[in-house]
Amino acid sequence: MSIETQKSLAEVQSFEGKYPKQIWSLFFSEMWERFCFYGMRGMLVFFMITQLNFGEKEANLQYGATQAFVYAFTFIGGLFADKILGFRKSLFWGGLLMIVGSVLLAIDTHQFFFFGLAFIIIGTGFFKPNISTMVGELYKDGDSRRDAGFSLFYAGINLGAFLGGYICVAIGKGYMLSSVIDEAHRWNVAFGLAAIGMLISLINFHFTKRSLGPIGLQPGHPDAIVKTSALPKWAEYAVYIGTLLLVPLIQVMVSKTEYTDYFMYTIGPLTLLYLFYEMTKVEKVERHKLIAALVFILFSIVFWGIYEQSGGSLSIFAAKNLNDSVLGGAFHLDPNGVNNSGGAFFIILLAPLFGLMWIWLSKRKLEPNTIIKFGLGFVFLGLGFYVLYATRFFAIDGMTSLDIFTVALLVITVGELCLSPIGLSIMTKLSPARLQGIMMGMWFLASAYGQYVAGLIGANMAEAREGDSLMDKLVTYTEGYKQLGLYSLIAGAILIVLSPYIKKLMHGVN
Ligand code: GLN
Question: One GO term of the cellular component aspect (predicted)?
Answer without folding.
Answer: plasma membrane
